[in-house]
Amino acid sequence: MNEKWIVERVEREGGRLWLYVNDAPVPLARVTPKRHMLVDSDALAFAYILETDDRFLYVMIPKPWWPELKAALDAKEPVWLRCGERTLELEQFHDELSYLLENIRGNANYGEALEQAVQDVFFEQ
């Protein structure tokens, strides 16, 4: 069974971008970064994939948090997940996000709304 964890809050602090989720049903100590990202065109969200022994977990990063993603990407700040007192580095986050952004840019296959949202946040000066 796969689950989605929605990022509730984002904070840039200490040279890192922190993504906060509440009430994760699986302890972060049992989770491993998959080092891969997807996009949910309908929800206008990026999804970083985590895995456990028996399932995948998707850390969903909705559009309201994208400006902070862009700032962290530009500053090359590592991205970390926090749930309560537990933390986990989301390895290869910038490489994966950059790859997705370049694929989405100018690509109608992702849907006009997502393509425009990515253009507005990540490529407009």
- Indicate the proportion of strand residues: 35-45%
End-to-end distance, in Å? 41 Å
Rg estimate, integer Å: 14 Å
Number of domains: 1
Structural class given helices, strands, pairing? alpha/beta
Q: So what's the overall shape?
A: globular
| Biggest sheet, spatial arrangement of strands | 1-6-5-4
> What is the helical fraction, as a range of percent?
25-40%
* Total beta strand runs: 8
Low-confidence stretches: none
- Major β-sheet profile: 4 strands, mixed
Q: Give the count of helical stretches.
A: 3
Order of helices and strands: EEEEEEHEEHH
| Overall mean pLDDT | 94
List keywords for this structure.
single chain, 125 residues, four-stranded mixed sheet, 3 helices, 8 strands, UPF0738, UPF0738 protein GK0828
Would you give an account of this structure?
- The chain is an alpha/beta fold.
- The chain has one domain.
- The protein contains 3 helices and 8 strands.
- The strands form 2 sheets. The protein has a 4-stranded mixed beta sheet, covered by helices on one side. It has a 4-stranded mixed beta sheet with strand order 2-3-7-8, covered by helices on one side.
- A hairpin with a 4-residue loop joins β4 and β5.
- The relative contact order is 0.21.
Give the secondary structure arrangement, pairings included.
Blueprint: E1 3-6, E2 9-13, E3 16-20, E4 32-40, E5 45-51, E6 56-62, H1 66-75, E7 79-83, E8 86-89, H2 93-104, H3 112-123
Parallel strand pairs: 1-6, 3-7
Antiparallel strand pairs: 2-3, 4-5, 5-6, 7-8
InterPro entries: UPF0738
Family: Belongs to the UPF0738 family.
Organism: Geobacillus kaustophilus (strain HTA426)
